[in-house]
Amino acid sequence: MSESALSSAPRVAVLLLAGGRGTRAGYETPKQLAMLGGKPVLRWSLDAFAAHDAISRGVLVASDDVVAAVGELPEGWSYAAAGAERQQSVGNALACLSDWDDDAMILVHDAARPGVTAAVVDRLLAVLQNGAKAAIPTLPVPDTLVEQAGNEAGEVVDRAALARVQTPQAFHLGTLRRAHAAAAGATATDDAQLVRRLGLPVQAVAGDARLHKLTYAEDMDILSGLLGTKAMTRTAVGMGYDVHRLVADKPLWIGGIEIAHSHGLEGHSDADVALHALTDAILGALADGDIGDHFPPSDPQWRGAASHRFLAFAADRVAARGGRIEHVDLTIIAEAPKIGPHRPAIRERIAEILAIPVAKVSVKATTTERLGFTGRREGIAAQAVATLQLPEI
Ligand SMILES: Nc1ccn([C@@H]2O[C@H](COP(=O)(O)OP(=O)(O)OP(=O)(O)O)[C@@H](O)[C@H]2O)c(=O)n1
Ligand SMILES: C[C@](O)(CO)[C@H](O)COP(=O)(O)O
């Protein structure tokens, strides 16, 4: 938008929604705090809006833990409390703008969409300036669409008549206020739907692939490609080592599978020595302590715990930092049982836990030629190396 157009334009505010818990992403912390290219996902859109000349005010909707992690807000920004649903979060943010007139322009944006561009914001504001009541960015549907019930693919749906809806979505403040008041508890997944329920038209403008939403953990990889953060990565390597004693009449868990044997490994958890070494290797590459720091043996909740939970936890911490596991290499040191026959199953299981291809999982085994504690069959040892790609610090 030109400078002269903006100078006569109404005031513009952003409602930045970061009040969700990111359940589908499955991280430990809300997805908007996951690291992407060296900064939290939420910070990407916050910085983009703060840098836009037309925007003079912002309300960040977030729970206390997110607020604490965000750090200082740009000038003109304030916080509102997260609501139970997205719609209530928007309602809480709207309450912060009670001192603004109905003709102000409001952008409502998901913090889970880090790739905000000035061009999309300008397109939205321009159509509002030209008389639209509401404007949303949309993208065409690239795939063939079918109806599906269970595993059965049914009729093709005409994709030419459909579009994918993104945020930011733009409204005059009065329209947005009326739409939320009229909703009276009836829910909608976005604000444009509430405006349409008032009988008002919503204008579509061209969206942007970079506005891709972080919904599932795998979206992180897509986003780092779209936002060009892949180049800003470093390789980190970690190693892990663990030993457990063999005792009679216990189940033997190694590498996430149960192996029939006269003896099993003793420990606070299921004592899966291989998964413990691997967990430590990943935590080591993250410089994030070791398995005992996160799952203390003194804590009764981990008694008998299945060790795949520890490994999945470590993998989640990689994803939450915007990183990925490139390769893991495991060596199991045991006189008996023979590990070789179980190697394919162990590789498969580890790949499944880490959600990486089997080709990125190496499992080796060796004996110590009957020397030492492993040679005397008193215990089994495992060592592991994990190679990660992490955002540059
Ligand atoms: N009570 C809520 C729920 C969602 N949001 C925000 O709305 C945006 C879109 O929601 P979604 O992607 O569904 O996020 P979550 O609700 O966090 O995800 P999930 O449904 O997987 O828990 C996100 O930026 C999210 O933080 C919000 O502010 N308040
Ligand atoms: C608002 C939204 O981003 C538009 O696509 C989306 O509807 C919100 O997320 P959800 O995954 O539908 O909860």
TrEMBL record:
Keyword field: Isoprene biosynthesis, Lyase, Metal-binding, Multifunctional enzyme, Nucleotidyltransferase, Transferase
Entry function: Bifunctional enzyme that catalyzes the formation of 4-diphosphocytidyl-2-C-methyl-D-erythritol from CTP and 2-C-methyl-D-erythritol 4-phosphate (MEP) (IspD), and catalyzes the conversion of 4-diphosphocytidyl-2-C-methyl-D-erythritol 2-phosphate (CDP-ME2P) to 2-C-methyl-D-erythritol 2,4-cyclodiphosphate (ME-CPP) with a corresponding release of cytidine 5-monophosphate (CMP) (IspF).
Residues the entry annotates as binding a divalent metal cation: 242, 244, 276
Xref: Gene3D superfamilies: 2-C-methyl-D-erythritol 2,4-cyclodiphosphate synthase, Spore Coat Polysaccharide Biosynthesis Protein SpsA, Chain A
Entry's family note: In the N-terminal section; belongs to the IspD/TarI cytidylyltransferase family. IspD subfamily.
Site (Positions MEP for the nucleophilic attack): 159, 213
Protein's name in the database: Bifunctional enzyme IspD/IspF
Superkingdom of source: Bacteria
EC number: 2.7.7.60, 4.6.1.12
Gene: ispDF
